[in-house]
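User: Is it possible to get a 3D structure for a protein together with its bound compound? The compound here is beta-D-glucopyranose. I've pasted both below.
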Amino acid sequence: MNIKKIMSKMTLEEKASLLSGSDFWHTKSVERLGIPQMMMSDGPHGLRKQRVDDENAGVNESIKSVCFPTACTLACSFDRDLIYRMGQAIGNECQAENVGVILGPGANIKRSPLCGRNFEYFSEDPFLASNIAASHIKGVQSKKIGTSLKHFAANNQENRRMSVSEEIDERTLNEIYLAAFEGAVRDAKPYTLMCSYNRINGTYSSENKRLLTDILRNKWGFEGLVMSDWGAVNQRPKGVAAGLDLEMPSSGGVNDAKIVEAVKKGTLSEEDVNLCCERVLTMVDNYYSGRDENAVWDKDADHALAVEIAAQSMVLLKNDDRILPLSKKSKVAFIGKFAAEPRFQGSGSSHINAFKVSDALSAAEKYADISYAQGYVTEDDKIDTALINEAVELAQNSDVAVVFAGLTDLFESEGFDRSHMGMPECQNELIRRVAAVQPNTVVVLHNGSPVEMPWIENVKGILETYLGGQGVGEAVCEILFGKVNPSGKLAETFPKKLSDNPSYLSFPGEGDYVRYSEGIFVGYRYYDFKEMDVLFPFGYGLSYTTFAYSDLKLYAKNITDKDTLTVSVTVRNTGHVAGREVVQLYVRDVESSVIRPVKELKGFEKIELAPGESKVIVFNLDRRAFAFYSDKTHDWFVESGDFEIMIGSSSRDIKLSQMIHVESSDRFPFVCTPNTTMGDIFKLKNGHKYLEKFVKNFADNLDTESDNEVLGAATKLMMEAQLRDNPLRVMVSFSDGNITHEDVEEICKKINAELCGKLDN
Ligand code: BGC
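Assistant: Yes, that's possible. Here is the predicted structure of the complex:
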């Protein structure tokens, strides 16, 4: 397509009309100019291609396809290659089904365990979320199919998602919530992004120029298209000016007319319309020029991949007395409806019409003789005593009881948030009663986000599957019976109780406002700082083997912020079975002028090791690994000083650490005024020289003498604090006329002239 030429022939009305969908899933065509339609579909963990033969087909009525594990499960794999392979498979399905863009992945941060849509998101940590999102995007786009990274940004709750304003300070927004998108945009270059429904500090994302143009395009270099979430447009002309290229689904021409009207009135520039139009045409053109008419997809091969990914992602949370893997000779009882009918995905727009689903009960047949009791119902949360009694009797007559439990769709979904962190009471009761008669009880969980586990001390094993996709049953059995060694690690913290979570006081906010009062202290950043006990920490997960860490090497003692630091560590499998380990690298800023987390994830690698085998893992850290986002420079900032490099098997299991000194070239802008504190001036290079007269005058007037030694010492401390914390102008008031306002002005002038507005930190 010669886009420029086509655009030169288009009327304003035609250009405006291209800026919204023709229906729920298609862009518009313009026959006169040979512009074809392009289809998009949800996403993210499979192809939810709505049946076009039936416009009234509901959310759950799409073509049969493969439901891969959901984002909450995928992230626990910590495995970039695996996620890339999933992306490739999904991209290929899209080619075969003539879908140009698949809507996802979602990189929103899990601020609270209550967000109903957490199952569609990766992590509480932006580094992990952006890395996994990037692999997903690269995989799909390797097949020349577009992705739509969503929901940009700060869609961290479902409650009032279309009107709520997330009130977030600049540092937190950039360091946590935007960073999850930034890494993926820079690294994987998604063809499109989808803006969120909500407002950020009062402005709807669909018309937020700062977000969609200043940050996304100008700072991060995004060159693709931004579409609205379905129905997220507020005032369409404002959106066009802000950089929202495509409105979805369709306003039936109403908003297109508003665009034309605004251009004619002169309140919207036609240039902005042209930009959006060009991006829509580019997206359509990209699809058709990369079209593979011959693509075919093999459902069974993709199913097998879904099983593999699920098995590599599940997290073994507890394994007392090595209850797992189960012996094939044991009499095993599978208890709980999810054994026969697993919950493997969440509900809402991501719901995939899985062409087949593997349940653990059928999948276990090839491993052992299994007996089954249903244990609970999923239609509501009523305790069914008869079902529990039957399960208890079965457990009593077995060697091991495996209870399949978790959340039902009534407990979590797109569209609404959870009201508590508990599991259905009918399931808690079942687990308690089974564990009371059967000491060898294992719980297999199916849930999209953390749950409280009141029975944790009474069971020996816990396997977290999250929402494992259509291969969940086979994958669970592979782990239960030892065919696969579990290697998933938690991509989020499981707090002991909901009120421990840092967003507890302000989730989901008051009416249309939610203040992110915990700031950057999301997830482990908070629990670590508070030294709080958690149920399971970020990065945690058990294996059937053991690993030893040694030989941490930093390839420099001092670096500058322009250098890359190479770090290596050796990991050895010290057990008797092959296994995979997720090696995690965290960084701590030892001393900082702003409050920083105790540690932050800045690297991870997943490796596979045969028994006795060792591997050297290499990490490369650039300046971003040491930086925080400064609201003074409005950019990432590295402060000179010592940093600790920590290598761990989880965020709470640091095996080795070493220090590095970083010399940074970053400087804060610094303007000295009469209200600048003396302490801030002392911190400048040769700062003392500017204040000699002030200090002398202060010392001359200082009388800390007292008969009481403690009182004297305290007065001295107070005076020192004053000297440090007093603004310059205050010295006039305590100088008996020796210091004047002109003296103060003189100092300010001198400092500002000599430092050229930069603070030498
Ligand atoms: C969701 C998006 C989804 C879109 C289309 C919206 O309600 O928030 O994630 O892609 O619908 O189904």
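The chain has a mean pLDDT of 95. The radius of gyration is 29 Å.
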